[in-house]
Structure formats: C-alpha cells, structure tokens
Amino acid sequence: MKIIKKFRLILLILFCISFNTNVVKCYSEELTKLNLNEEINKGYLLIGIKQYLGREKNIFSQNRFLSFETKKGSMLEIISSNGLEYKAKKVDILFDRVPLSTTLLIERLVSDPFASFESAKRASLPLKEKGLDPKITYPNDWEIWLPTRAKNLVNQNFKLKKISIEEKIVPFINNEYVFQKLDSITRIFSNENIKINNVEYGKEFYLIKDSYGSWTLVQKLSFNDYLRGVLPYEIGSDAPMEALKAQAIIARTWAIYNSDRFKSDNYHLCITTQCQVYKPSFNNNLNIENAIRETTNMIMTYNGNPVNAFYHASNGGISAPASESWEMKDYPYFLTKYDFIGGGNNKFNFFYKNEKSLRNFIFDKNNKYLGSKHYLFRWTKKIASTQIINLINEQNSSFQKDKTIDLKIIERGKSGRVIKLEIRQSGRIEPLILNKDDIRKYLKFLPSNLFIIDKLNDDFWVFTGGGFGHGVGLSQSGAIEMAKLGFNYERILGHYYEGINITDFKSIKR
C-alpha cells in the first residue's frame, strides 16, 4: 500500500512539473493554525493590515481585490493549506462569493456594543469565571459572543442573534494562467519587499479567515520592524531622542500586553487607533532607528509582568487612573496627579468634590504643566443641540430632532474627568446615561472627558476642557517637554508609570 501511494505521488509531481513553472504546483507544504503566543515569544507580531476582505458585495470594492508584486529579481511564493503552491513575480487575489448548497444557520448570544476593547475585556472576566467561554470580537464595534446555552445565565445586555448564511467568501488566485481557490490559511512571502496594491509593505504575510466569514491580510513583523511603522505616526519623527526611546519602550510593551486583542481572528493587532497606528515605513529616520536599536527588547514591567502601557497625546495637566476611562480595574502604576515636575499628589485637590476648583484649573493660564504647548491642552467647543442629537442617533438611539435636550454631569472621577453624563430630551421618559468611554464614542467632537458644560440657550452648548485622549499613562506632549528639559527616557517613564521596572523581554517567563 505504501509503495502504491509513493508511486502515485511521484506520478503527480512529474505531471505537475510538466506544466509551465509559473502554473500552480501540486505539492503541498503543511500549514497549521498560527500560534499567537509562540510568535510573540519568538519576537514577532501578527498585524492585520487589511481587515474584512470580501465583506462588501460591490465587485468593484477595494476589499474584493489584492495585487501582490515584486520588482527586483526575487519571486513571491504562495502556499495554501489546501495544498496549493504558486510562484510568480505578480499575483492577484480575488475574493468571490460562492453559493452554499445548504443554508447555514448560526445562533449566538451577542452583547450590546462596547466603546473599547478594554471595557469589553473587563465585562468578559465574570463570564469566564462562570465557565461561559466569552469571545471578544470586532465586526463593527467591540462585542462579546457567547454560545446559546448561556441564555439563562446572562442579563438583558445580551441578545439572541440568528444568522442565515447562503454563500461564503472564497479567495482565488486570478491570473493569466490560473484561477485557483485558496484555503483557510495562506502564506505569501518573498526574499524582497512585496508591493500590495502598489504600496510596499514587507516580506511575509498570511491570508486568514476571520470570525465573520471575511478575510484578513496579516503581516508578520519583528518587534523592531513594527516599531518603525508606529513611532512616526504615534509621537512623530521629530520628537527628541529620549522621548522617542520612551515611546519605543511603551509601544513595544503595549503591543505585547495587548497581543490578545484580535485573538478571535487569529492575529494580534490591527493598524488603526483601535490598536496603535501602524504604517509601513522604509524611509529610515536616523533618530527613530537609534531609539529602537538602543531600546531593543526593553519593556516596562510591574512585579515581573508587562504593564498595560496606556498613552495619549495630552493629559491637560492632570493624569487619570484607568478606571476613569474604561470599565476596568485600576493599576497601581497609574496615579491621579498634576503633571508637572515634582508635582506629586500630596496637595491634590479632588475636582470631583469641587466644581469651582475644576473651573479655576481649566481656565488657569499658568503654563507650569508639562505639555501645555499642545494645541489641545485647552480647548472650547460650541455645539448645537441638533448636532448632539444627530451624533446620538448615529449610535441607534431614538432622539427626535425637533425636541430640546438637557445635559447634566452626574459624576466625575478624581481627576475631574466626566465618568457619567446624563442627556434628557423633552417628551422622553428615560434619559440617556453615557459612562466613561461611551461619552466620547457618542459625542465625537470631544477631545477628552476633562470638561465643563455651559448652556447658552436651548440651541447651543459650550464645552470647555483640557487634553486630547483618555489621560491615562504617558502624555506624549509632556514626554516631549521632559526630553527637551534634559530628562532621559528612564526618568520620563518613571514619571508617568509609578514603580515600574525596565526589563529585557527575553528574560520574562511567559
């Protein structure tokens, strides 16, 4: 039997070799499910650079077509888990819709949407403790999926969803010589950088089926290559060297800590603000190269574990704990304190107890705070009631455009940030209560949750506030100013992350 199988394999290979070398080869290379933890331990990140491929039904959509090309001497190779192997200098992949012979019915419990991964993860923890196996997903917003057997164990925030599927999205190599189906995991690689839709990205990619029936193009990157595409877009190439070093350590730490963000889709991170902004970068900036090289493998740890290294553009002069921004636990390395050198929190005036003190702080023109030169360190927004109603209705609410609204801050955190906002509308019995990160999800014009509200009349409101972002962890504008004042990256990180250590990632047991 073994001799017969071997003979058949030899015949098959000989048959395939007889074709033009650019045509599909018929031998296979085994592809298995990617091990996310193993890739991290080896120093690699899997980044979803093009998500939801094939989802749109418009055949002219950019999400229905990918073109891969090398320009120099190397060929690019495609190896699919269905046994297909193909080599060429240019390959096109088309995502087509194939009818199913039988309609597929899927039932699951789906949570109400969360404003952030952090809040979704926090909500998933008690579900895990019940043994319910929650799955955090991001089809449009962050959601939690549960099997239907959990129906009687969850609250009204979960709804039963029934999905009928009559067709599936299938990727095909679509070239002059071949139209061939690809399967669940497909590896695409070359010895030289590959252009994808005329944009140069890198050398190694995977095409992976996601949790929603569509596909994601995933790039495999070393930590350092990933940081080359993050630092220019998160803090800027012209930042001082010590600020760049601090950002390199933070971005590396954040990526490792949050590497389960897209676990349900079999990769680590995305390239948008839902993760860290990443774009392929081949124009090597000497300062960025030096900052990455001089901090290679360095991460921040607390009690021997990577920290949840939040950062943002500007804290408006005062830092916030994590629980003020998201439905999550606090971390001991994030404190509420004024952001100036030696400011500490020993004489801190808790603004949630005193609205007058908060107003004095927001209207204070003193520039003693780090990062006070940032363009959104202080800001004012005059907003029409109709604009607020339109933004609310974008989130599937039911506010009426011809009715007046009233805004009221119900609760503030210790840093003065709004953590509960009430919006009432005439004729509507129940008010809309927005909590923490939902506030900026609904009211997109707000740069931060550190604000006060003044009513001009029924038609207009004035929001006056400080900072850009959530206010937790490092303030990039503050770090830049500290670097200009002569502080090194260790001092900068120690200022924003209390009690942390800087550790070589390879020395940590995972």
Features of this protein?
single chain, 510 residues, alpha+beta, Alpha-Beta Plaits, twelve-stranded antiparallel sheet, 12 helices
Fold and architecture overview:
The chain is an alpha+beta fold. Among the domains are: 100-167, Alpha-Beta Plaits (2-Layer Sandwich), CATH 3.30.70; 225-307 and 495-507, no CATH class; 310-472, no CATH class. Helix content is 22%, strand content 31%. The chain contains twelve helices and 23 strands. Strands 1, 2, 3, 4, 5, 6, 7, 8, 9, 10, 11 and 12 form a twelve-stranded antiparallel sheet that branches. It has a three-stranded antiparallel sheet with strand order 14-13-23. It has a three-stranded antiparallel sheet with strand order 16-21-20. Helix 6 (241-257) packs across helix 7 and helix 6 packs antiparallel against helix 11 (476-484). The chain starts with a helix and ends in a 6-residue tail after the last strand.
- Helices, by number, come to 12
- The count of strands amounts to 23
Which spans of ≥5 residues are poorly predicted at pLDDT below 50? 1-30
Distance between the termini: 45 Å
Arithmetic mean of pLDDT? 89
Q: Tell the overall outline.
A: globular
How much helicity do the residues have?
10-25%
Multimerization status: single chain
Radius of gyration of CA atoms, rounded to a whole number? 26 Å
Please state roughly what percent of the residues sit in beta strands, choosing from under 5%, 5-15%, 15-25%, 25-35%, 35-45% or over 45%.
Answer: 25-35%
The biggest beta sheet, please?
Answer: 12 strands, antiparallel
Given the helix and strand composition, which structural class is it?
alpha+beta
